[in-house]
What we know:
The chain is α/β, with parallel strands linked by helices.
Amino acid sequence: MAAVDVLNSAGKKVSEIQLSDEIFSTPVKTSVLHQVVRSQLVAKREGTASCKTRGTVKGSTRKLFRQKGTGNARAGSIKSPLRKGGGIIFGPSPRSYEIKVPKKVKKLALRMALSSKLEDKTLFVIDDFNLETVKTRAFAGVLNALSLTNLLIVSDTEDTNLSLSSRNVPGVKVIRTEGLNVYDILRFKNLLLVESTVKNIEGRLS
Length: 206
């Protein structure tokens, strides 16, 4: 089991925590990470683009002019795609861009993402933030003490002081254990876990 230092809000080591090899020492395969990240990104697409075909355009069904004798090409409908205001040929219609990924693959990708952070030595553990009030300056002071930027913070409870104090700090995101995902872990350079989240993560991914 890998041992990681537990820091306090002043950046000082207060203890050590053992991380499960089953979760944090998984061999990393980029193909699995790519599959899960791609499924997350395409799931954000709304797929609501829509246009009208000649069957749904509002307009008269009367023949525009007689078939012969006018010198014009034959025309039977004002809703024809060839005419101004007519329908669209093969235009977009509402659809889902979802790519289904098995639950086991999602869990495996999460373990790989966490393992990659530990391997790169960009995974850190803090005992608690100890923010008594909503204060961006106090939160920024903790980050300065830890010397961390471009940071994903994982908390196990709804910490209002933490979430509100961090929302105006660029390059920082706070999520709960339930929302932990591969894309956010890989998007940020550093990962900071509140000590109490480690057991929750190990229980969820074991």
